[in-house]
Structure formats: structure tokens, C-alpha cells
Specification:
The chain is an alpha/beta fold. The chain folds into 2 domains: about 35-265, Mur-like, catalytic domain (UDP-N-acetylmuramoyl-L-alanine:D-glutamate ligase, 3-Layer(aba) Sandwich); about 270-395, Mur ligase, C-terminal domain (Protein-Tyrosine Phosphatase, Chain A). Helix content is about 40%, strand content about 20%. It has 15 helices and 15 strands. It has helices at about 1-15, 20-30, 35-40, 55-70, 85-95, 110-120, 135-140, 140-155, 165-170, 235-250, 255-265, 290-300, 340-350, 360-370, 385-395, and strands at about 45-50, 75, 105-110, 125-130, 160, 180, 205-215, 215-220, 225-230, 270-280, 280-285, 310, 330-335, 355-360, 380. Helix 2 crosses helix 5, helix 4 (about 55-70) packs across helix 10 and helix 4 (about 55-70) crosses helix 11.
Length: about 400
């Protein structure tokens, strides 16, 4: 633990913004049980959140609601949802004995790393958001994601699933689950999930999204009706909130008024339509992870933001998925950056989007971006480009 904390301290002194999982890697080698011991020190146990999309928002909302109810919560910041990142979080917030000051632990888990870790974590509650045709370069087929989430479910004491997703509904035949989803009369956009040729039986939903309007939603549960503010517009965000409310209701007693007030004041989720101040200017940051994510983020911008930078980093192992993104609402992108910048620029060109400049190096792209004038500076970037850009600008957490 001491060596890991020392490595973290030195790294943050050397690299502006720090934010690396390297100390977690060191701690993993030296103390492989560090994470399980840290979780064991929290008397109310562990809640995990996993799935293709919506993990970060759902985790953030659960954490904020539990804290509003007076609980000390340990979580993994900056969406550090792989094994090394989880260990790095313990190094950051734990004491020299590897213990954390918390009543309960809430962790966002990457589907692959979560499935590998879950047998040693033993969550009291797992929240599973959805299965999308996501990261095919990693998982090849959505069925593999379904299998990994099943491992998480079977290792957890209680499980909450998106009952509209047939990939998750299959779990209901293997263990007891609680469902959330859209109400029967919901008239808004219905999300599309990965194709599943099975036809699992539906289950009762204890928490339902009844309607959405802009960035507001009405959500009903067995404990009451909530009229809540969403992090951004979209049915997917309402489902994230419904999942979080369902999880919190299984964990503690919380009034409807406190839930509504907490969500009204919810701080931005890390890089999910987050606004940060850089060189005296407010910059909008939006993380994109797959075609669905990219399209949803594009829906939440006007399309005429100035300056606008799009970045495709090295985490996009197969840039062909960029062709699944609809860029037609954009007229101009001032800077296209990241390792896969030229692939992204090609797709933009086919959508007849004007391109200012292509700069592969994220640091150089960020520096150039900050020299451009405009009232609505906005960056959409993939995870690798996000980490490199934030580190260069001193924003890494």
C-alpha cells in the first residue's frame, strides 16, 4: 500500500494531471487482495453497475442519492472501471492499511474486467443497464457481453436489470431479478438493444419511466412517483435514473422530495456533457464510445458550436464503426484530432462537413483548439483521446 501510494504521488508530480492506472498496477502485483479488503471494510457492502452503456451516469446518480441520505460512499472516480483503475482508486482514498472510510461501496465495472473480478467481490447488489452491439473489436459478439453480465448477476446477492432488454431478460429464468424499464404507455423514443433471437418472458417492472419532456422525466416506483431532472435529454438518461432509483430504494429509505432535490442539483458526470473551465473559458466535454454513444451525443448539441473539435483516439481499434455515426447535422468541425483523426475526417467529408484542420497528436490538437475564438467551445472525444487531452490540460482526476 505504501509503495503504491508513493508511486501515485511521484507520478502526479512528474505528469501534470496525473490520472494514471500505473499505481494501481503496482498495487495489484504487491497486494492482490487490496480491493477485496477495502470493500470488506465497508459495513453495507458493495453495489456494482455494469452493462454496455449508461454505467457512469447510473453509478454517479446512485452515489449522489446515497450521500444525500447521509451515507459515506466510496466509488471509483473518473470512470476508472477496469481492475487497475479500481486499485488506483483504493490507493487514492484508502489509508496505509488499505481500508476506506465508507458505509457502502458503489463501483462502475467494465463488463469484461467485472466478470473476471466478480467472484472475489461478492456484491450485495448488481445493476445491469443494457447490452448493445458495442466494442465489437473487444467482445466480437454481443452474446459475449451477455455472458459476462450473467457471471456478474449470478455472483451477486440481488440483481436489477433493464427489463426491456431481451439480452438481460434471459437472466430471469436463472435467478430472481428486479426489473426497471419503460412504462407500457410510454410514447417517447424506445432504445434499440443488441439483437437476441430468444424470446424470454417479460417480468414485472418495479420502477418505470412514464414520460419524458426535454430534460425532465416522470418515474414511478413501488414507493412513489418522481418528477426528476435528467443529466441531458433522452430516453436512455431516464432509464439510467430509473435504474439508480431502483437500486437506492433497495438500499435505504429515501423520501421522494430528497430524490428530486438531489437530482435537480446533480453535478456533471465525468466527461458526460461536462463543463470545465480551461484558460478562463467554459468548455463542453462529451465522451463518445461507440456509434450509439456518438449519435446520442450529437443529438444533444446544436450542430453549430464554435469552436468544435472531434477526436478519435487509439482505443478505436476498428475505425469502420465511425461510418455508423450520422454527422449530417454538422456543418463544420474546426479540428479533427487523435490517432484515428484521418479516418474520422474521411467520414466527415462524406457527410459534406467542412474541416478546419486535422491534427493527430492530442496535445497539439488541444493547444490549437484553445487558440480558436468562439462562444461555445465543444469537444467530443473517444476515451483514449479524452485521457490524453485531459492529462495535457491538467484536468485528469
Amino acid at each position: 500500500m505504501v509503495l503504491g501510494k508513493t508511486a501515485r504521488f511521484l507520478l502526479r508530480r512528474i505528469r501534470r494531471g496525473g490520472g494514471s492506472a500505473l499505481p494501481g498496477t503496482i498495487a495489484l502485483k504487491i497486494q492482490p487482495k487490496l480491493l477485496t479488503r477495502a470493500i470488506a471494510s465497508a459495513p453495507m457492502g458493495l453495489i456494482v453497475v455494469s452493462g454496455s452503456a449508461g454505467k457512469s451516469t447510473t453509478t454517479k446518480v446512485i452515489v449522489e442519492l446515497l450521500r444525500a441520505n447521509g451515507l459515506e460512499v466510496f466509488t471509483n472516480p473518473s470512470t476508472a472501471n477496469i481492475r487497475q483503475g479500481l486499485y488506483a482508486a483504493v490507493l487514492q482514498f484508502g489509508n496505509l492499511r488499505g481500508k476506506i472510510k465508507a458505509d457502502i461501496v458503489v463501483l462502475e465495472l467494465d463488463e469484461g474486467h467485472g466478470a473476471a473480478l466478480i467472484s472475489e467481490l461478492r456484491p450485495r447488489l448488481a445493476v445491469l443497464t443494457n447490452v448493445l452491439p458495442d466494442q465489437l473489436d473487444r467482445f466480437v459478439d454481443p452474446e459475449y457481453v451477455q455472458q459476462k453480465l450473467e457471471r456478474i448477476a449470478l455472483a451477486s446477492d440481488q440483481v436489477i436489470i433493464n427489463a426491456d432488454d431481451p439480452n438481460l431478460l434471459t437472466l430471469a429464468s436463472k435467478r430472481e431479478v428486479t426489473g426497471f424499464g419503460l412504462g407500457r404507455g410510454f410514447e417517447g423514443e424506445h432504445p434499440e438493444y443488441a439483437i437476441n433471437f430468444q424470446k424470454p418472458d417479460s417480468i414485472q417492472k418495479t420502477t418505470e419511466v412514464l414520460r419524458t419532456e426535454g430534460i425532465s422525466a416522470e418515474i414511478a416506483s413501488t414507493k412513489g412517483s418522481y418528477f426528476v431532472k435528467l443529466p441531458s435529454a433522452g430516453t436512455h438518461q431516464a432509464l439510467n435514473i430509473a435504474a439508480a432509483i431502483c437500486a437506492v430504494e433497495k438500499t435505504c429509505d429515501m423520501s421522494v422530495e430528497l430524490v428530486e432535490d438531489t437530482l435537480e442539483k446533480l453535478p456533471p458526470v465525468f466527461a458526460r456533457d461536462e463543463k470545465v473551465t480551461i484558460a478562463g473559458r467554459e468548455v463542453r466535454l462529451m465522451l463518445v464510445q461507440n456509434p450509439t454513444s456518438f449519435n446520442l451525443n450529437l443529438e444533444n448539441i446544436a450542430g453549430d458550436e464554435v469552436p468544435l473539435m472531434l477526436m478519435a483516439g487509439s482505443d478505436i481499434h476498428d475505425p469502420s464503426w465511425l461510418w455508423g455515426v450520422d454527422f449530417s447535422k454538422l456543418k463544420r468541425v474546426d479540428i479533427v484530432g487523435g490517432l484515428n483523426a484521418y479516418d474520422l475526417a474521411l467520414v466527415l467529408s462524406y457527410h459534406e462537413v467542412e474541416i478546419g484542420e486535422v491534427i493527430q497528436n492530442p496535445a497539439d490538437a488541444a493547444d490549437k483548439f484553445l487558440t480558436l475564438s468562439g462562444e461555445s467551445p465543444t469537444i467530443l472525444f473517444s476515451a483514449d483521446a479524452m485521457r490524453r487531452t485531459r492529462r495535457h490540460l491538467g484536468l485528469a482526476k
